[in-house]
Amino acid sequence: MSTDLPSSHPDAAWWRQAAVYQIYPRSFADANHDGLGDLPGVTARMGYLSGLGIDAIWLSPFYPSALADGGYDVDDYRNVDPRLGSLADFDAMVAAAHDSGLRVIVDIVPNHSSNRHAWFQAALASAPGSPERARYHFLDGLGDDGELPPSDWPSHFGGGAWTRVVEQAGPNAGSPGQWYLHLFAPEQPDFNWDHAEVREDFHTTLRFWADRGVDGFRVDVAHGLAKDMSLPLRSKPSLEILVDDGTDALFDRDAVHEIFAGWRSVLNEYSPPKAAVAEAWVPFTNRRLMYARPSELGQAFNFDLLQAPFDAAEFRAIVQKCLEEAAASGASSTWVFSNHDVIRHPSRYALPDGSTLADLEAWLLADGRVPAPDLERGLRRARAATLFMLALPGSAYLYQGEELGLFEVADLPASALQDPTWFRTQHLVKGRDGCRVPLPWDAAEPNFGFGGTPWLPQPAWFAGKAAASQDGVDGSTLEMYRSALGWRRKLQAEETLEWLSSPADVVAHYRRPNGWEVLTNFGAVPAALPAGVDLSKVILSSGDAPSGAIPAETTLWLTP
Ligand code: NOJ
User: Which atom of ligand 1 is least distant from the CA of 221?
Assistant: First the structure.
């Protein structure tokens, strides 16, 4: 730890406009050929990662876990799953990243542990009312015999949010007893954040990884930690947040900010201070930005573009609002189109305009066949959206495989599916496995160079998408990402932009303070160039080279 004043460190703001690449470790690269990606696999690919032109990697959980929710069910917050490596492998990975000029962000999962966590095991083995139970939310059930759950709260993965235990201690040992809360899978019991030991333990975890050289943290379900557990529990039959005043029973409660102010104090013990980004699915941007204040985490994911239709006016409005609010709160904005929880964006954009979340789920359930996706169009739009986004002020979060133009693997056989959503909805919602299929590195190698037989099967079409097949190929999605990230680093400017007018409504046109210009034609036919645009300055196109017009569904970058 350095004794410099943290905020005066020359690197204190590295994260504000970083390009961050998300690694889902079990699906990235498998060095020991057991079919599960691992940390040595990440280390072995560090050259590929730094060659992309990113600034940081973010690793989804690599902690010991039974994988009831892909690793977001953590058994031990201060260790590495032995199937993924060891703490020494982790240190080697961080050292390799730093040697390559990359920062490292790790995922922290504070809303819930796994049911195998030592504290939860101790809670199960203890009687109702014991101190061991107090670190989670255990309550007696309703009904004459406590046979009904304490509230009507649903779980995110389907079914209810309460599970009843068979008591192991106390006068009722051997009989059904209390219920515990899990807003996600039953294997993910929610912590009680009013408990001082829970708060302290997470400070210990932050310091544990920060001391090992980690540069930042991604905070899972940041908006869920504070809950109104006063009895009787309030009814909340849907997990949607409908109020923007901090009084929802479960999410985005005002009390959560006190927790993150405490985290900021810990993060500021380091020089430069450690960065953090909140995953807070809060629909109200003014509330979401509270997590991102400098006195809290610094950034919050903004999923607005990810959820928006491919439309110039929508994109412009979202960007404008998010930038204004980020500036007002002192945060920097974040942008993202794909991650391990959503259908990959080239597939989303391949579906009919106006598709809702329910339509996307139905499409997945139909193995990606109905409606038939227009894959060419989907990828064309995805590339245009990505170039539009990579020039915006703020941080860009990229998800492994998007640089290869991967589509969702929508037709995974039912027998391969692992997402708890699939099981908890009685096979009505397929879930997120289709964006988590292990990456194709080289079509000439077994398992496309991933390693052993992958834990989710790779489709044959991965061959054409493998990194080696795109390496050095002009116009490939991989080369487009590399060029864009390279230019982004050279052209990065102050955190603002100016909108320029365009004769066509379907065109969004903006300029960064140094003159870096971006034009996106969201329309299906070529659009006229705005007056004064000099095509000789085009340094990058997401599609065809422009000749007198902006090609359909294409973004152009112009050098200052
Ligand atoms: C958000 C994570 O991104 C997701 O993958 C996980 O299932 C839930 N939080 C629960 O931890």
Answer: 9
